[in-house]
Specification:
Blueprint: E1 2-4, H1 6-17, E2 28-33, E3 54-56, E4 63-66, E5 69-72, E6 76-77, E7 86-94, E8 102-114, E9 122-123, E10 129-131
Antiparallel strand pairs: 1-8, 2-3, 2-7, 4-5, 5-10, 6-9, 7-8
Length: 133
């Protein structure tokens, strides 16, 4: 399951019904969370221990689209953790590598504990699903 953030809902609504224009972000980044980001981005994003959001190109060959669902066609790989990241439960899509605006968020099918020295966390191709319905 995925949900649009308050920021994205307002931007699209203002684009459709008001005078504001919504511009496509120049890049998107996938973040990991240990608590739900919610529509207002109030969750807890992983930090420290070499963690960084991962940029995924906005290209047709990087994302599959079918009936309102978008799925990654490439692995999305994070750096190897050099500290405990905790139990990752959610993901978020942002318009910046740090800070920026949360656009979409969702819950992971299976929470994952990530500790220092573990193999890098990743979404294998075909496993990150974002649904608009």
């Amino acid at each position: 399951m995925s949900a649009m953030s308050n920021h994205l809902e307002t931007a699209i609504g203002d684009h459709l019904f008001r005078a504001s224009t919504f511009s496509k972000p120049s890049a998107i980044y996938v973040a990991l969370f240990t608590t739900a980001p919610n529509d207002d981005n109030s969750g807890t994003e992983v930090s420290g221990g070499s963690y960084a959001r991962v940029e995924v190109a906005q290209q047709n060959n990087k994302w599959n689209a079918s009936d309102g669902q978008y799925t990654n066609n490439v692995d999305i790989e994070y750096p190897d953790p050099t500290a405990n990241w905790g139990t990752v439960t959610h993901f978020g899509i942002f318009d910046a590598s740090s800070g920026g605006n949360l656009l979409i968020w969702g819950i992971l099918d299976s929470p994952k504990v990530i500790n220092s020295g573990d193999a890098n966390a990743k979404f294998s191709a075909g496993t990150l699903n974002i649904t608009f319905k």
